[in-house]
Amino acid sequence: MFxxxxxxxxxxxDSDDRRLLAGDIGVRIRLTKVLKSAAGxxxxxxxxxxxxxxxxxxxxxxxxxxxxxxxxxxxIVDRVLAAAGLAPTVTVEKRRESWRLGRxxxxxxxxxxxxxxxxxxxPDETTIENVRxxxxxxxxxxxxxxxxxxLDARDHRTDKSNLPPNVTLVTIIxxxxxxxxxxxxxxxxxxxxxxxxxxxxxxxxxxxxGALRGGAGLVTAATPATVQPIVATLAPxxxxxxxxxxAHGTLTPEAVRQVTHARGTVLAVGPGMGVGTPQQRLVQxxxxxxAVERPRPVVLDADGLNNLAALGDWPARRRGTMIxxxxxxxxxxxxxxxxxDVQTDRVRHALAxxxxxxxxxxxxxxxxxxxxxxxxxxxxxTVVTDGxxxxxxxTGNPGLATGGSGDVLTGLLAxxxxxxxxxxxxxxxxxxxxxxxxxxxxxxVGETSLIxxxxxxxxxxxxxx
Length: 465
Description:
The protein has helices spanning about 20, 75-85, 125-135, 145-155, 200-215, 230-235, 255-260, 275-290, 305-310, 315, 330-335, 340-345, 345-360, 360-365, 405-420, 425-445, 450-465, and strands at about 1-15, 25-35, 50, 65-70, 85-100, 105-110, 115-120, 170, 190-195, 220-225, 240-245, 265-270, 300, 320-325, 375, 385, 390. A hairpin with a 2-residue loop joins strand 5 (about 85-100) and strand 6. The model has no long low-confidence stretch (mean pLDDT about 90). The strands form two sheets. The chain has a ten-stranded mixed beta sheet, sandwiched between helices. The radius of gyration is 25 Å and the shape is elongated. With about 475 residues, it is an alpha/beta fold. Helix 8 crosses helix 9.
């Protein structure tokens, strides 16, 4: 029995850090416009406020708890949600045709620019499956929701037509060359990881293990002497350097000298480092000496970026190749923007920031050749750019929204550079591989249960794919 045709406009709300999306939770206001209704059918077109809980992991078909209520004024709801720290993040518009078949409702949803989908709602999985067979609907049911499909489609629209003419869109994933049979560990570079502190030794260990899984021939973790035994235990295949600290466990000037004089093809600086004046001095020394005394690329992540932001004029201090890997919050601190603004147009903000930083450091880098600057703006559809080229990553899932996953990426990226890959290519391959490892892991352990150490177990399979 035909029920009617409507156009639904769904506005989804989330926090600046996309906490609800990461937790597979939806808060939505739906506005409905009736195009056609069955004779005698009454349609309540008042705004509908809905809370959608996470999809049940044990359900064969997509099933989630929902609580909803009609409201008279959606503008008031907007203000209430804003007071709770939630703002509109994505709008899903669709044309919906509905039929009633037995105890199920069958809906044909058309999302402009995305596709057409059949949705069957019923009292239980058996009843829904019987209706699917009766309608001869082929293919496997998807557990994806319209929010993710809309966000993916929005990100995938990044093409040459809406990029500056001097920016090349990169779609080919680079690869590492095959290793020669007579290779030895010295052929594959040496990553020096600088990080760790009391309470955050795990970040340094994850980064070191990420570098090892990424293929670095040697990895050394330079970490405060107070946590060095912990890091050595977490990363037994890596070497360690106990950095000098005072009686309070604070890094001393000697620690700076230890880092700048330590061996290493590439530096990965920041995981678990902490923020403060000693750490800022260390970051400053690293970026100023990167291509003066020792021409080594520097990958900056986490607290390495937070300490960098505190320096203020860091683009003018840069003396060599740097790869920055911020999440949206860290990027906002570097650019003095808001996280919300960054997330509304990640590509535009990324390109603008890199070009601004390059221009700010132009005079100091004029005499240096090969001093690159690459930005890896992490998040759903990670953006990689050096100002001339742009890559938007397609792998990964919400399971990556867990502590430590970025530390693994930092180590993996540093390892690829250590093996001779150009920084931009290494960043593209690292983000692709990191996301693919998460996708492979999620198939086995699920997105909800995925943790950073799972990524280490699946990087090998991802690199073989």
